Amino acid sequence: MSTGTAHNGPIEIAFEVEGPVSGYGLPDMVRVFRVIGSTGYPRDDQWIRDAAVRSFDQAHDPDGVRRQLAAIMTATDRRPMLRQLVVFTGMGHDLPAALQPVIADEIAGICRKERPS
């Protein structure tokens, strides 16, 4: 938990590392998803922990954040595509199990529209 130092907000606090996860110095991703995850759907804390360890094992790449930020900075304007955006109230930066079939149907519909005749 906190050592008494000042914090710049909930994201910084969420990413504090309290101890190793499966031998790694991973942040407690359950705490992270309490801040950035869906508020309108149940959260599976054990699945989040397991996924964090699997993700770290499969693709730990410290330079990845830098590449992602560079891609964001050099990306073209995507605002015209926002007309197709489907918003799910209560959904955060995760994929709630309750929404997976609906989201899959939305993706399939877009694929059908974009497929050349």
| Rg (C-alpha, Å) | 18 Å
**Low-confidence segments:** 1-8, 10-14, 17-21
Task: Describe the main β-sheet briefly.
Answer: none
**Helix/strand order, N-terminal first:** HHHHH
Number of domains: 1
Estimate what percentage of residues fall within beta strands: under 5%
How would you sum up this structure in a few lines?
By secondary structure, the chain is mainly alpha-helical.
Lay out the secondary structure:
Elements: H1 10-14, H2 29-36, H3 45-59, H4 64-74, H5 100-114
Give structural notes:
The chain is built from five helices and no strands.
Key terms:
117 residues; disordered N terminus; mainly alpha; 5 helices; AB_hydrolase_fold; single chain
